[in-house]
Amino acid sequence: MSTPAIQAALQQMQGLATQAASTQPLSGAQASTAVGQGGFGGELQASIQRINRLQQTANSQAMAFQAGDPNLQLNDVMVDMQKASVAFQMGLQVRNRLVSAYRDVMNMQV
């Protein structure tokens, strides 16, 4: 990275730090609504939909590349397939943690 590029990046970082310092923190009521209105179930469902969308996009790009679409490059297809794979693995791990937590709660003595 050249010196002017480093200086430009440093100036941009300092500007962002100044901007972040000048914003007001959220109050308690604002902070709770900023997280989301759907709750945990809504967030889980939205995550599953995003994972599904990533997988569908990767599959459609792979099919288009196999069909010979000149607008697609192999590296783009492979990156999107890896993104979908990582997202799926993350979803699988979240599911495993939820099942484990459920089992722990069910095995508790009352």
Automatic annotation (TrEMBL):
Keyword annotations of the record: Bacterial flagellum, Cell projection, Cilium, Flagellum
One Pfam family from the record: FliE
GO molecular function annotation: cytoskeletal motor activity; structural molecule activity
InterPro entries, per the entry: FliE
Places the protein is found: Bacterial flagellum basal body
Major subcellular location class: other
GO CC aspect terms: bacterial-type flagellum basal body
HAMAP family: FliE (MF_00724)
Protein name: Flagellar hook-basal body complex protein FliE
Organism: Vreelandella maris
